[in-house]
User: Which sequence fits this backbone?
């Protein structure tokens, strides 16, 4: 519709709230009347909030020559109340709200109301933040505040300019505004009241910052900004503490004082860090809860039931376990004293306590948000907690042997490696080059890969369903083991998941959305994926099968795009091809052998157990329902998407089913397979079909399942980093705590070095775990470390790095996780003692931390090495 002509379909009322806007009335009303609006279909209502500068007189003068009405309010000034008063008095079916400060261009009014007049939307927003929109003359601080306010609101209401003061809506929507509504952002109230039910369009405008904007000027003060945040929090379902801020702050300061003083008292008395911070935390939390429940959250004071207390304890446990990581980071990583570290730790976890209490323990009970909004808020909170939990513990939790092994890859950089492609080594090399040879440097690559996986899964789920589903899909990725664990540990699975999610996204864009440029992204993602792990190659047959079964996609078989994408992926994969060509195809042969199964036994039952581990029982049931149900409207559009989801899940999964018939696939191999079906699982969470009993039970089970998963992750991280009072280290007593074990081995090496006068050779008597862990945590005088291939046993990449060891009179120190590893080969048959010169007995090292046993390590000292006929990796693979 042209800006100068409006089809008169129904009456339109333009509501303009004013407060001391006398200088702006004439130019504003002149601009509106120059639009040549039909008088019988348009009216202008000026609602004045008791101005003292003559604004009402200016408006009365216009009442005689145009369709203008004045409403004078004598109540307490308030922008929302003024607009609602004008909407109540309006005769039009469409209400237009605009500012009196000349910031909103009147010439955009026809474009603003056109979508409502033609019935295509319910709310039309004059937006500064869509293509074609802009702001002019606005001070930079105000512009930043506006951007921040909209950024905070966008996850909840799906618009770019939720704080716009220039918008149009159907008159009946005014009745949906909640009674406590206040402040400047009536548009936000409208959007939240009709969440998921309203059709909204954003019309670009050029916002001119006025010089006489009384209402607008007040927005820059702290009070309206704080009121906006409080109202946004209430609309999202959180309870804003009642009463004076000073009382709320006093309770908080009292809790901080109790926490800090008790912590320091216990530490000064010799208590361990874990015991001190757990005791002081729960003491302070009990005081905080009892005082807040009766005062700050007094609307709920009569609701102190066991479930409320249980929720408070849940939030307290999450805050406590997160705080343990903060303390470990500050004390061990940043070398602060415990007496200083406790204060930032208290401040950090106070945020968790505050928002957890507001949204979970004492959520709003009057005019609560819709279930969709509650799930969005929960998704944001859960994802934020999971990401922060990984980030805080990233550099404090010790490496597992697998990570240390991949670190040795980066120490011997190459085009590829025997048992894995090179991406994991490249990421570790980059991370350690920036952050040093630390746990954080090793793992930062996996953390970033986790964020990339989330971003691509979000985009995929939004394309397949909607924004709410996308947010829940990211939440499931963050809490299920298939997503949390790879993002926390630096293994090839971290870049694999990122590349898998990216490949799925680009495949959907190419095959479903018919975007030609997506083939370029798919070629890059696929190439980087097989540089991460060969498993991603399973998406190739899945894509081919989809193209065959989907008639609309078959045209790509006759076009060059798919073939060029494959060529690009092959080009990216070329380092692996070159390395294999140089090493007699050792890696290809090794992976081919693994593809026939590990252990050469029927293991289908183990595959189901592994799926339970990566999905959880609730996730496994949800995945079954997602793959078997219709999951959406029964039309061609959704049929193609269902086919896409099923093909890209079932084809890779079928490969693992086949492998399990002849061998035992590793438990984590199927993790990326479920990325394709996660959007449907997330979509099902938002449905409410009472006729489907099992689906409803699964939907209800998600909440406790999510809580249990997060608790287990937080507890395990706290357990391995700080320990838990009264809980022994019984789970990780073989494959963890290598930092402390290496310190003990270093003492043995120093003693042997001093006694023999020669540098001993330290031999890790596992395939690669012991040698790699010792190499990473060797911080004192460097040790000469080898692996068990010295005795003719397969040691993966150590066969390439140290292919042979000639006889020597240097002392040999064998280190193993079990005693028999120091006496026999991997099969437990051949005795390795003849290869040693004057071997001593197997001895035990007890590893202790803070008086608590961590684990045991075994070692054996010989006076030399007589040599054996080492087998190459290629020979062992045969």
Assistant:
């Amino acid at each position: 519709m042209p800006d100068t002509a409006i089809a008169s379909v129904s009456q339109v009322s333009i509501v303009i709230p004013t407060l001391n806007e006398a200088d702006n009335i004439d130019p504003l009303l002149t601009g509106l009347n120059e639009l040549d609006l039909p008088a019988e279909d348009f009216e202008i209502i000026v609602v004045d909030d008791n101005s003292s500068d003559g604004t009402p007189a200016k408006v009365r003068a216009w009442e005689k020559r145009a369709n203008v009405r004045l409403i004078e309010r004598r109540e307490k000034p308030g922008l929302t109340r003024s607009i609602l008063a004008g909407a109540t008095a309006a005769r039009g079916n469409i209400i237009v709200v605009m500012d009196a400060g000349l910031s909103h261009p009147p010439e955009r009014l026809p474009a603003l109301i056109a979508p409502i007049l033609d019935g295509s939307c319910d709310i039309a927003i004059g937006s500064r933040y869509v293509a074609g929109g802009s702001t002019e003359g606005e001070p930079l601080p105000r512009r930043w505040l506006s951007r921040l306010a909209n950024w905070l609101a966008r996850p909840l209401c799906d618009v770019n300019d939720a704080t716009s003061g220039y918008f149009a809506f159907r008159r009946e929507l005014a009745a949906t505004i909640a009674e406590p509504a206040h402040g400047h952002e009536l548009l936000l109230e409208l959007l939240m009241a009709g969440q998921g039910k309203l059709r909204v369009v954003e019309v670009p405008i050029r916002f001119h910052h006025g010089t006489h904007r009384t209402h607008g000027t007040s927005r820059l003060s702290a009070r309206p900004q704080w009121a906006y945040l409080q109202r946004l929090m209430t609309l999202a379902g959180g309870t804003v503490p009642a009463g004076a801020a000073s009382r709320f702050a006093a309770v908080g300061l009292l809790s901080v004082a109790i926490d800090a003083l008790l912590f320091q008292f216990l530490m000064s008395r010799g208590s361990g860090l874990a015991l001190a911070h757990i005791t002081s935390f729960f003491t302070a939390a009990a005081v905080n809860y009892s005082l807040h429940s009766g005062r700050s959250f007094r609307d709920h004071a009569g609701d102190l039931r066991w479930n409320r207390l249980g929720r408070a304890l849940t939030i307290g446990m999450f805050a406590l376990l997160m705080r343990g990581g903060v303390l470990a980071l500050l004390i061990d990583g940043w070398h602060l004293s415990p007496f200083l570290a406790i204060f930032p730790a208290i401040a950090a976890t106070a945020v968790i306590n505050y928002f957890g209490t507001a949204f979970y323990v004492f959520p709003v009970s009057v005019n609560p948000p819709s279930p969709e909004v509650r799930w969005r808020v929960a998704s944001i909170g859960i994802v934020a907690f999971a990401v922060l939990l990984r980030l805080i513990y990233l550099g404090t939790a010790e490496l597992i042997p697998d990570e240390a092994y991949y670190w040795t890859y980066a120490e011997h950089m190459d085009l590829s490696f025997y048992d894995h492609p090179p991406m994991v080594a490249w990421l570790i090399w980059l991370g350690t080059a920036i952050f040093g040879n630390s746990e954080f440097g090793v793992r930062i690559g996996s953390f970033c890969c986790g964020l990339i996986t989330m971003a691509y899964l979000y985009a995929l789920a939004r394309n397949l369903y909607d924004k709410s589903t996308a947010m829940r899909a990211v939440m499931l990725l963050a809490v299920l083991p298939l997503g949390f664990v790879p993002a926390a540990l630096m293994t090839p699975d971290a870049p694999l998941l990122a590349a898998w999610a990216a490949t799925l996204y680009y495949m959907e864009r190419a095959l479903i959305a018919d975007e030609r440029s997506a083939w370029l992204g798919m070629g890059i993602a696929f190439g980087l994926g097989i540089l991460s792990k060969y498993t991603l190659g399973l998406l190739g047959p899945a894509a081919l099968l989809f193209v065959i079964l989907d008639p609309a996609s078959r045209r790509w078989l006759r076009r060059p795009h798919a073939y060029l994408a494959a060529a690009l992926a092959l080009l990216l994969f070329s380092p692996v091809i070159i390395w294999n060509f140089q090493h007699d195809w050792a890696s290809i042969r090794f992976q081919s052998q693994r593809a026939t199964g590990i252990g050469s036994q029927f293991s289908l039952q183990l595959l189901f157990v592994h799926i339970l581990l990566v999905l959880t029982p609730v996730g496994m049931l949800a995945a079954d329902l997602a793959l078997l149900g219709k999951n959406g409207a029964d039309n061609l559009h959704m049929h193609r998407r269902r086919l896409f989801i099923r093909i890209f899940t079932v084809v890779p999964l079928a490969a693992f089913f086949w492998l399990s018939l002849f061998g035992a696939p590793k438990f984590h191999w199927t993790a990326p397979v479920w990325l394709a079906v996660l959007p449907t699982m997330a979509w099902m969470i938002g449905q409410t079909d009472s006729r489907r009993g099992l689906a409803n039970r699964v939907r209800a089970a998600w909440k406790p399942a999510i809580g249990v998963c997060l608790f287990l992750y937080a507890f395990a991280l706290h357990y391995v980093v700080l320990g838990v009072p009264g809980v022994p280290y019984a789970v990780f007593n073989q494959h963890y705590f290598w930092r402390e074990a290496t310190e003990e081995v270093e003492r043995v090496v120093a003693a042997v070095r001093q006694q023999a006068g020669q540098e001993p050779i330290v031999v890790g008597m596992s395939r690669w775990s012991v040698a790699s862990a010792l190499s990473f945590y060797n911080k004192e005088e460097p040790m000469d470390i080898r692996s068990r291939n010295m005795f003719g046993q397969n040691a993966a990449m150590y066969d390439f790095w140290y292919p042979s060891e000639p006889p020597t009179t240097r002392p040999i120190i064998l280190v193993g996780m079990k005693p028999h590893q120091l006496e026999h080969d991997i099969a437990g048959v051949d005795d390795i003692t003849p290869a040693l010169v004057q071997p001593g007995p197997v001895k035990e090292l007890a590893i202790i931390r803070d008086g608590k046993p961590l684990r045991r390590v075994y070692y054996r000292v010989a006076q030399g090495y007589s040599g054996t006929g080492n087998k190459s990796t290629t020979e062992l693979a045969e």
